[in-house]
Design brief:
12 strands, RNaseH-like_sf, SRSO17 transposase, two-stranded antiparallel sheet, globular, single chain, IS701-like_DDE_dom, IS701-like
Length: 433
Amino acid sequence: MAAGYRVDAQRWRVLFDDLMLTVGHRFRRPEPRRRVRDFVRGLLAPLPTKNCWTIAEHAGDAGPDGMQDLLTRVKWEDTAVRADVREFVGHHLGETDAVLVNDETGDLKKGRHTVGVQRQYSGTAGKIENCQLAVHLVYATDAAHAMLDTALYLPKSWWDDPERRAEAGIPGCVRFATKPQLASRMIEAAVAAGLPCRWAAGDEAYGNDPRLAARLRQLRLGYVLALACSHQVTTGIGTYRVDVLAAELPATAWQRVSAGRGAKGYRYYDWSFTALPHADDEHGGHHWLLIRRNRRTGELAFYRCWSPEPAALHTLVTVAGHRWKIEESFQAAKTGLGLDQHQNRRWTSWHRWTTLAILAHAFLAAATAGHRHHDEPTDLIPLTVNELRHLFNILIIEPTRRRCDLLLWSIRRRRHQSRAKTSHYARQALIEP
């Protein structure tokens, strides 16, 4: 180790072991407890692609059956494991001013048999594609952010096709829910569990739903939710579309405030906020319309805001800036933890894969936040989630990893591909002349 530069790898090992012991009580037998540990280590490892085959080979298993069983046949509740992750995040990252951030992400898919898939708009692709959409909840503070919870969105087309739902293994108790409804359920669960937080944030898909805003007020959770430019608000001088109101604001109504630190400097925008006393309801509190203006392009963004207590402009801007942290979480989880690399068509296996990816991200977030409490040399940026994952693999995973017979794994893969090819040709022969 270079002189003057230290990392506490032993602390990371202890933190990882504690987390795996915590979730381990969700499994009845020692075999799945060992396997889930190996699975998460595989997600943390720098594998070119991540699926049950590559993770099993990395773990030193004789074949992929055990990892596949972990996602399909072994009895365990993914909701209970996510509850353990939520408690872990609250213990290591918990702050009273934390923000719960909701957003969805899409995974591009082929065919129509993967659970939840249809042609729909994906923000990941920026257009309508054949994809799955899942709503995620992220816990964000000034120092760190970690993934907490997830819910797969099922389009209405799936509810008109009972046979398709049965084939995907969707439980009968599952009912159709919009994305804001899924977000509301996850937030309610976090608040009911006592997770320390004071704010919620989300984009237009959530800000345009008045029922979600009403539920957050009922929970006494302040919010900064994005709005469409066509949204109407009532001020002391009348009812206006928010974009019309913004055009009529005088120059003195705008203030230059940073929405947070970026990789290339502070994220400065012009901001204006207007009190909305006519928006009061039985929940009381304080309502505002917050408007953001890009200093270079003039592009506008609008937010509905509420807090049970008075809040300064800087506070609302900080909460709005925290919404971007969910994009950083998605990027880290997809590029480093295989969040979108699953090959699972059914309901249960999708939720289990995603839950274990969330668990791995929560560990990295907690380990990174703990490292920042130590003195750092001034010529280094703080340790990032991606860099810590790299170091954890080199210093902790690799020295203790079981090795497998690489030739036997090559034979197994080619035999599996041969059987699949034979099966495809046989199926084609039944329908083709």
